[in-house]
Amino acid sequence: MNSIENVSRRGFLKVAGISSSAFVLGMSLPITSSQAKSSASAVNHELNFFVSIANDSMVTLVCHRSEMGQGIRTSVPQIIAEELEADWQKVTVVQAKADAKYGSQGTAGSASIRNHFTSIRQIGAVARDMLEQAAANIWQVQKNAVKAQKHFVVHNATGEKISFGELASHAAKLTTPDSKTIKLKANSDFSLIGKDVKLIDLDDIVAGKAQYAQDIQLPDMLIATIVRPPVVGGKVVSFDASEALKVKGVVDVIALKPRSIPVGINPLGGVAVLANNTWAALEGRKKLTIKWQLGDKQKHNSSEFSKQLVKKVQRKGEKVATKGDVYNHQYNENNTLEATYTVPYIHHAPMETPAATAVIHGKKCTIWAGTQNPQWAKGTVARELGLGEDEQDNIELNVTLMGGAFGRKSKADFIVEAVELAKTSKRPVKVIWSREDDIQHGYYHSISANYCKAELTEQSSADHWISRNAYPPIGWLWNPEAKVPSDNQLALGFGDIPFALNNLSIEKHAVDSFVRPGWVRSVACINNGFALGSFVDELAVKAKIPTRQMWLNLLGVDRHVDPNKNGFKYSNYNLDLTAHPIDTKRIKNLINLISDKAKVEQALPENQGWGISFLRSFGSFVAAATKVSVVNNKVTVLEMHTAVDCGIVVTPDRVKAQMEGAMVFGLSIALMGEISVKDGQVEQNNFHDYPVTRINQAPEMHVHIIESDKPPGGIGEPGVPPVAPSITNAIYHASKTRIRDLPVNKVFTV
Amino acid sequence: MIKIILNNKPVELDVDPQMPLLYALRDELQLTGTKFGCGAGQCGACTVHVNGKAMRSCVTPISAIAEQAITTIEGLADKQGNLGESAVQVAWREFKVPQCGYCQSGQMMSAAALLKAIPQPNDEQIIEHMQGNICRCGTYKRIKAAIKSAAGNTTDLAANNASPNTSPANTLPSNSLPTNNNGVEIFDARKFTHDSKGA
Questions:
Q1: Within 10 A of A379 (CB to CB), how many other CB atoms are there?
Q2: Structure ipTM
Q3: Where does the Aldehyde oxidase/xanthine dehydrogenase a/b hammerhead domain start and stop, copy by copy (chain A) (predicted)?
Q4: Under a CB-based contact definition with an 8 Å cutoff, are residues A642 and A663 in contact?
Q5: Would you call B182 an interface residue with chain A, using a CB distance cutoff of 8 Å?
Q6: Which domain range does residue A291 map to?
Q7: Is the Cβ of B56 closer than 8 Å to some Cβ of chain A?
């Protein structure tokens, strides 16, 4: 746990926008000996604050997590302001630079609030306590005789008030109390958490003033575009830059360092064209001639590979979890269902392609980037520049807004490219990725096959369940020998089946990797959720009962499921399983709610159908329902609902927005999302051949949020997994055509 | 040297006449509200107005719009000229449309052009006109709602009176503009021939 300290007098005042601050509360990790030297410097400490209060009462709060559209730059400060008793109108937000003292800044896994809710609250609570103590000292009363209230501390007996601004310099002189001794607010006293506040970046975005990584402009800056090896692991043999250099505005052509497997989060190498403007760089790029050595990944063809994965999962795999015995059981063929589901490679395609700007002066390196993981990027850059652990302060990494990320911008490859080119060219360099670069050189959701088998029971449930999957694991990025997913990966809607089964076998397979695998919004929950949600629907059809009923029957009695009991080391998204249980009551509640709200069992016109699905992921429970029509081989999605139980809701409108966005993201995955690879090269180029959902495909949408006082779960990703199976289940009920291989547009017009 | 009227002010550009307007705006004029999304006229993130009509600036050479009136998100205003207060911007704030926000300049420029052509669009017209603008965050539901709300508020300067300081003689030949079936013109400059030496 991080420690909170009063750092008012340590030279924080240089931080932009808080020059009049009197009271500054910082947070730091326990200092290890190797960090001790650098942390004594003011430069370092300047950035290490969370709360600062100026004499005029303006409160500056730091957001240490990265904004990619989820609204975290509102929600984190909102949580601090809640405990601080700050007036939201008097709060401004500063974005943290990359600094280990903030603790985790890795904005991924829908983790910002679910993993840090309490520690973020404590920061606000400690500041509030110190302001109360300062007021109590002035009035010469006990602390419990005063109370912070909307930017003032009030004397309970007299009703007298002192503003935060007046108290700031007094609070600055106090010793910071131990955060564990400060009582957090009761949920019933929340005045900001659970309310919709003014969104921090809304006005700037609407005015066109919000600054993204693509928007960085520096004097003397060059813009770089890079031709990367068409196949992962490929290298430049030779290149001819003479024609490119003739393009007006092109300044230089630079070969990037060749890179090897394991690819990690490093750049891919290639040849860069640097120019005075984007157009010149792009024109110059067209005139490059490059001879490549493609390497052995050129043998990869995704359509053949998918067939191999399907074949693989027909066979028994390596144990993930077991209960009872499925292999010495005589399956009754009439009541047994087997199905194999496939999902292709999928790409993030954020609207803002990757971009980063770097400038190097001597040992000092300054970077502007939209990154989901500022500290990981900083460490990677430090290694690139040959800086030691204690020299990381030479790197200043400014975190910009991201124009979407969805997992792509966790990786620092594009940031290292900018640093490499700034170092070589000795000028500030902004690396921009074209859309083609983005689509062809991504970190893809892995191509996969999932197999399910189960036998219906006399109670219209199922047992003797087998789940298998096979897909290139993300661990391959760092270890070329990695062939099976880690337990953390297998925990994503696979090893944590919540059903009341007596006999269960969950198995994994070893798979080779050929393109860079990555985390795409909800990660392996995409394929595992698709298989699970589809298979339950298929079981319901076979049992001739409503899909809702099959879910309820499979879930069984209300209980907390513990996958560890099946021999699976279950990580539960790094959440405590007692505080964040797999609670079948909450699942059943959602299945019933979505079915009732969407009226999924209502009689429909011919060629129309409802489909439902569910997945618990990242600590949250989400059910989805979709209505489609299938006419003349064309699927039209008519209506979608999601119901979410994510525990305590911090910013309701942003939870709703994430659910709306997840429906649209899930639509893209289900209907059209496919990256195909031929001879090791991605075949798609831009939005014409990697289509994503457009407004004409977006149906009527409804979001149902469960009111809850349970600890908060994640919200960025959990909306996605149940969407695709709800769509394909609806297609089945409308047309009797079962889609087991995504995307839908292989079979139907969308 | 190519002259354009940018957000009601004359601007001269000394650039390759083939340079798409997008890069001239962003790299030369530091107007970064207009975004790069695809470079191929497929996503709408770069949408600006040329004489009040929506245009994809990433595929529009600067030479094709010489002497024309260009409005970018930075110039979108209400009838009184209050920047940032156009009907669509007011509605975008009211409905909290943006998530990451990156595509939203283009969305708002397309929406403003729609409302100029069709002040009270129905659902089909909204969908028809807006399907060239991709939002990967999936804000479509709110975009539709915001456009309908803005349709009740017709005080836009940029949407109603696109080129107050420009000679009408310099407007583009409207008969050559591709027109979709709801009458909204979407200008794709690749379909124009132009003097590559510039105006």
A1: 18
A2: 0.95
A3: 207-296
A4: yes
A5: no
A6: 213-295+354-432
A7: no
